Description:
The complex is a heterodimer.
Chain A: H1 3-25, H2 30-46, H3 53-73, H4 78-100, H5 106-132, H6 139-157
Chain B: H1 2-20, H2 23-41, E1 49-57, E2 69-71, E3 76-84, E4 89-96, E5 102-107, E6 110-115, E7 120-129, E8 132-144, E9 151-165, E10 181-204, H3 216-221, E11 227-244, E12 252-253, E13 256-257, H4 258-275, E14 279-285, E15 289-295, H5 297-309, E16 335-339, H6 347-355, E17 360-365, H7 367-372, H8 380-402, E18 406-410, H9 416-429
Parallel strand pairs in B: 2-9, 11-14, 11-16, 16-17, 17-18
Antiparallel strand pairs in B: 1-3, 3-7, 4-6, 4-8, 5-7, 8-9, 10-11, 12-13, 14-15
Helix pairs in contact in B: 1-2, 4-5
Amino acid sequence: MTRITRGATLGIVLAALSLSAGYAAAGHGWGIAVWLAAGALWRFVLRRRARYAAPTGSLLWTLFTVGAAVGIWLGAWPGAMLAGVGGALIAWDLHALRLRLHGDEAGFVKPHLRRLVFVAGGGLLLGSSALALRFELGLLLAIGLGLLAVLGLGQAVRE
Amino acid sequence: MRKRLLSGLVYILVMMGLASLRGELLALAIPLIVYLIAALWYSPQPRDLQVERTLVRKDDLAAAAPADRATAGTPVTVAIVLTNTGGYLEEIHIEDVLPDGLHVIEGMARLQTMLQPGETATLTYTVAGTRGSYLFDDVHVTFAEHLGIFKTRLQLRVPAHLLVLPEVRPLRPIPIRPPRTHGYAGPIPSGQPGSGADFHGVRPYQIGDPRRHINWRLTARHEALTFTNEFEQERIADVGLILDARRQVDIRRDDDALFEHTVRATAALADAFLNDGNRVALLIYGRAMERTFPGYGKFQRERILRSLAQARTGDSMVFETFDYLLTGFFPKRSQLVLVSPLISDDLPVLLRLRARGYPLLIVSPDPIDFEMRLLSPKDPDVALAARISRVERELLLQRLLQHGIRVVDWPTGTSLDAALHAGLLRAQRVPQQGRLGRRR
């Protein structure tokens, strides 16, 4: 197993266990079966290089992220959901890297992992801090932040 | 795709969080936002790049001489050198677009690498292909940051031209005797007395004749006269090669075409005639009349091979028959060599050509033999059809031979050299209806 596959598997396990635990703790026992099955499917797809591998990986990542948001709606512990989002992000990134590389690019893996650790670690740290932080959000501020998010993201990802 | 998905999820989480005024949902979006910002921060700006392409024949690697030509099947190494004269480029994916007809035999036509400022990356792979003219053009280069979210795709024009010349198999010297020869010494008996190796005749001795040429036997029979031997001058001649590129005479199968054999035969004949010192011209008759003007030596060989490399069959209505064959292109009474599978409609034109005083040699790749290899000879219908076609072809060749046209019937599975010399021997034995006299 390569470093990429190991890292992606770790991300899948983290995401599946976090979401399962979060759902179970909130009294939704079916969540364990759903998220462990989704994790197993992702692990299976991870080893494949077929045409369906990339879209399936993206679909499963979306499922885990949306599942974490739904979990918060269902009363799951936000920390577990955040860990699930982080794990899914790591798995999605490394899955895409595995499909992008053709096997002779050993030099790519190290800087990629370094950046991923930095980015995912930073994101989780900031997310955790945000969970700990409590302040009142007024309607106007919410609309303003929403507009800012729309404009900022639109600028960032435009072709 | 990944960029859209990531930003879409960020949107959803942020909007859900803001709509429901739940900070936890906003917190879930933070790792994704950090990931997106990091990708944006490191997004590539490939402004200063230099790309260069070189083609090197595999057998010339030691000399490392750029090559724009190779013979069929010879491996050619393609090297694309990318130099980064700008900032650090984290991920570069280079993919070369191969012209149709070439295939990679070693390495891959793509490369994934990273480039520090001033560093170069080289994509190297080896191709081989069949006869033809190939134009390399675009190289696709994709730049990305390590996370692979923001990508820049460039299509860089790095043109190079590769000519794959037909294979040339050496032939023994081909005996031809055109009525007109040139003034330079060569291998073709000119019918004129002079310095040469073959005995030509005798004449009265003149002052200055070498004593070793005196014919002592004849001189002994005459009291007052002394005779000297004359030898036949050997000269070079004009040879006009005509390649039949009419689509109607070509037969194609999956990986082979009769035309390819016709081209190879023309290349071998050109090589043999040029090696003998003759002046050789080429006319490709089919799509149009593509001409290579008469010339001598290695340069002419190269010119002819380059023309043959680009030869294609064509189905122009004008050139369906040989009626428009540009005979004025060849000097009068020069040797014409037609390389064609032949069809029965060609007979009158070829006879007219012969009547105009052109000695004609036809090398005819056998289309029936070629086609039979595609079909089942055990099928009675196929066997009957082949038999009828064979009889028709034999009749056509026989009539050509009877009119003093030398015909070489070449089953493409056999050696051209053997077929050529056997065919020329056969042509000498056939009684001719009207023999054209040699002008002296």
